[in-house]
Amino acid sequence: MRITLCGTRGSTPAPGLDYIRYGGHTSCLAFTADGAEVPELILDAGTGIREVTRQLNGGAFRGTIALTHLHWDHVHGLPFFRGGDRDDASVRLLLPAPGGGSDALATLARGMSPPHFPITPNQLRGDWQFSGIEPGLIRLGSLTLLARDIPHKGGRTFGYRVSDGSHSIAYLPDHCPTDLGPGPAGLGAYHDAALELADGVDILMHDSFWYAEDFDPKLTFGHAAAEYAVGLAEAAGAQRVMLLHHRPDRTDTELDKLLDSFHASGVPVTLAADGQVICL
Ligand SMILES: [Zn+2]
Ligand SMILES: [Zn+2]
Question: Which helix (H) or strand (E) holds 109?
Answer without folding.
Answer: helix 104-109
